[in-house]
Amino acid sequence: MAVEIREVRTPRDLKEFVRFPYRLYRGNSYWVPPLIQGELSTLDRKKNPAFEYCDASFWLALKDGQVAGRIAGIVNRKFVDIWKTPTAGFGWFETVDDREVSGALLETAETWARQRGMTAVQGPMGLTNFDHQGLLIEGFDELPTIASAYNHPYYLSHLEDRGYEKVNDYLEFEVKPPKEIPEKAQRIADIAMKRKRIRLIKPRSKKELLPYAKDIFGIINRTYSHLFAYVPLSDRQIEYYTQKYFSFIQPEYVSLLADTEDRLVGFQITMPSLSRAMQKARGRLYPFGWFHLLKALKKPKTIDLYLVGILPEYQNQGLNAVFMVDLSRITIENRIETAETNSEQEDNKKVQDFWKYYESRQHKRKRIVKKTL
C-alpha cells in the first residue's frame, strides 16, 4: 500500500505526532522518552516564542492505516539572515525501517522548503538550538542524557540514500571523576581567580539561582555565537526557557563566576542524571512521574554536564580550571561514579580540553546532514 502523507493540522494530529516515538521505541532500553506535555508545548505556536521567526509544518506518514513516521520542515528566518544561507531544516524525524516511508517524508519536507525559496535542507534540527538536534551515528548501546537525541541505527543510511551528506559532527564523552581534586587544576584556578579578581558563587536555593537566569542566557548568546548554526535567543525565549527548565536545576550542582562588580562572567550547569527516571515516567509527570524524578535527584551515581560558558574576554585565562575544581568537589562529595557530557562540536577543542584532567572516553557521535535542493 502506498504511503499517505498527512499534514498535522488538528490537536489530535499533533498528539499522534508527539506520541509516535513511544510506539517506535517500545522495548528499547536506550531511548529516553521526553515529557509528552513538554513536547506539545514546544510545538504549540501560541506558546513557543520561536514561532515568531520560524515557519514550520509537521507531517505524519501513514502506511496500512498506521502512523509509520513523522517529520517537521523548518525555515528559521533568523538563521537564514545570520548565516547568510537559504537553508531549511528538518527535525522531529522518526521512521520505521522502510525507505518508502522515510523517502516520502523527506521528499515532502524538501518540496516544502523549495517552495519557500530554500536551496538546501539540513538536519535533524529544532526550532532553536535548545531542541534536540543531530542524528546519532555512534553509541547506540549507550544511554543518552535527557538533552540528547536517540534514534535507530538505520536512519543514517536512509538519509544518505536520499543524497544527504555530513555537514557537522558532535561528540559526547563519558568522564570518570577523580578521587581527589587535581592539584594542577587547583593551582591554575587559584592563580586565575586572584589575577582576574573573580569569585565563585554557589547558589544555595533555586530562589538564589533564578536572578542569574537572564545573565546565564546572555553568556550563552555571546559565547555560542560562533558555533555551527547557532541563533541567539530573544528576551521572550529566555523567559520561556527559564520557566521551562530552571525548576529542574539543582543549585548545588551549579557554579557561577562573577567579577568585582557582581557581573556574571561564567557559569557551569550540571545535573543528576534523569535518564532512567524519565524512562520510568514514560513521558508523564503524573501520577508517578514526579516520584521517579525526585528519587533520581537524591543520590545520583551519574551526573550530566549540560552547559558551560565563559565570556569571550575571560576565556583562555585559566577560569575553566575553576569549573573543573568545583566539579571535582561536587563529584567527590556526592560520590558520583560517572559524568556524561552533552553534545560538543567535534572541532570545539576549548570544551574538550576540559576533560584532560580526567579519565574519559568518547562514546557517542551525532551528525547534521545536508542536501542541496
Give a description of the structure:
- The protein is an alpha+beta fold and 373 residues long.
- It folds into 2 domains: 4-172, Aminopeptidase (3-Layer(aba) Sandwich), CATH 3.40.630; 175-364, 3-Layer(aba) Sandwich (Aminopeptidase).
- It has 13 helices and 14 strands.
- Strands 1, 2, 3, 4, 5, 6, 7, 8, 9, 10, 11, 12, 13 and 14 form a 14-stranded mixed beta sheet that branches.
- α6 (183-196) packs across α12 (319-333) and α10 packs antiparallel against α11 (289-298).
CATH architecture of the largest domain: 3-Layer(aba) Sandwich
Largest beta-sheet characterization: 14 strands, mixed
Binned, the helix content reads 25-40%
Instruction: Tell me what portion of residues adopts beta-strand conformation.
Output: 25-35%
- Count of runs of 4 or more consecutive helical residues: 13
Write the layout of secondary structure elements.
Layout: E1 4-7, H1 11-24, H2 36-42, E2 54-63, E3 66-76, H3 77-83, E4 87-95, H4 99-115, E5 120-123, E6 135-138, H5 155-161, E7 165-176, H6 183-196, E8 199-201, H7 206-209, H8 213-223, H9 235-245, E9 254-258, E10 264-272, H10 275-281, H11 289-298, E11 302-310, H12 319-333, E12 338-341, E13 344-345, H13 349-352, E14 359-372
Parallel strand pairs: 4-5, 11-12
Antiparallel strand pairs: 1-2, 2-3, 3-4, 5-14, 6-14, 7-12, 7-13, 7-14, 8-9, 9-10, 10-11
Structure summarized in a few sentences:
This protein has 373 residues and is of the alpha+beta class.
Keywords:
single chain; 373 residues; alpha+beta; Aminopeptidase; 14-stranded mixed β-sheet
